[in-house]
Design goal:
Blueprint: E1 2-7, H1 12-16, H2 18-26, E2 29-36, E3 56-62, H3 66-74, E4 81-85, E5 88-91, E6 105-111, H4 119-137, E7 142-151, E8 161-167, H5 175-179, H6 185-201, E9 209-219
Antiparallel strand pairs: 1-3, 1-4, 2-3, 2-9, 4-7, 5-7, 6-8, 6-9, 7-8
C-alpha cells in the first residue's frame, strides 16, 4: 500500500533524520519519499493553497498496517493530513541514489472533485484523457498519479487525487522550460491553452493545493 501525507508544521532536518526512517521501518514501511518546499525551490513561480500551507509531502510504501505508519508521521507533525492512495506512474521518475536530492522541480498537487461531477467520471477523465494532454503539453519527465481511496487521519480534506510532476530545474522561472516549448512563443501559447482547457474540464483549475518541492527517496532496509 501507499500512503501520502501533507505536512504543515515541520522541520526539514527532522524529516530527513534517520530517526523517522527507523520508526517507519519498525512500523512496516519499506520505502519513503520526501517532497520538501525548501530553499532549492524557493524561486518557484507557482504556489497555491486552499488553507493551511503545505510545506512538505511524505509518501510511504508499506506492507504493514496504516495506524503505526500514520502515528510515526504524526509524531513529526501532529497537524499532518493523510490518505491511502492507489499509485499509477504513466511516466516513471528517473532513479536517484538513496537520500540524494533529485535534480528536478517536483510539483505536487492535491486535487478536489467539483460538486456535481460523479466520482467515476472525474477519475476517468483525469487518468485517461488528461494524462496524455498533461504529458504532451508540459516539459515533464516524471508523472505520478495517486487516486485517493480514503483518508487515514482525522479531518483530512476531501482530496480526490494527488499528482506529482517532475520538471527540469530551469522551470522554476522559465515558462518555456516548464511547458517544453523550446523557446517558441506560439508553441508555448498553444500548449498552455490546451492544458488550461483540460484542467477546467475536471475542476483542476481551482480549489487545489500546489506545492513546489525538492524530491528525496529512501529505501528502508530490514
Amino acid at each position: 500500500m501507499k500512503l501520502v501525507f501533507a505536512l504543515h508544521h515541520v522541520n526539514d532536518d527532522a524529516l530527513r533524520s534517520p530517526e523517522l526512517r527507523h520508526r517507519l521501518r519498525a512500523a512496516g514501511a519499506r520505502r519513503l519519499q520526501l517532497n520538501l518546499d525548501d530553499e532549492a525551490v524557493a524561486a518557484a513561480q507557482l504556489r497555491l493553497s486552499t488553507g493551511t500551507t503545505i510545506t512538505a509531502v511524505v509518501s510511504v510504501w508499506s506492507d504493514g498496517e496504516v495506524g503505526p505508519i500514520a502515528d510515526a508521521v504524526l509524531g513529526i507533525d501532529p497537524t499532518a493530513d493523510g490518505w491511502l492512495v492507489e499509485e499509477r506512474s504513466p511516466l516513471p521518475p528517473p532513479d536517484v541514489p538513496d537520500g540524494d536530492r533529485a535534480d528536478v522541480l517536483a510539483n505536487v498537487a492535491f486535487l478536489r472533485r467539483p460538486d456535481g461531477m460523479p466520482p467515476a467520471d472525474w477519475t476517468a477523465y483525469w487518468l485517461d484523457e488528461h494524462t496524455t494532454i498533461a504529458i504532451e503539453t508540459q516539459g515533464t519527465f516524471g508523472y505520478v498519479q495517486n487516486p485517493v481511496l480514503e483518508a487515514v487521519t482525522a479531518d483530512a480534506p476531501a482530496v480526490a487525487g494527488i499528482v506529482e510532476e517532475l520538471f527540469p530545474m530551469a522551470a522554476l522561472g522559465d515558462l518555456h522550460a516548464f511547458y517544453g516549448s523550446g523557446g517558441d512563443d506560439a508553441e508555448l501559447q498553444r500548449r498552455l491553452g490546451r492544458m488550461l482547457d483540460s484542467v477546467a474540464r475536471f475542476g483542476a483549475d481551482r480549489d487545489l493545493d500546489l506545492v513546489p518541492t525538492s524530491r528525496y527517496v529512501f529505501t528502508l532496509p530490514d
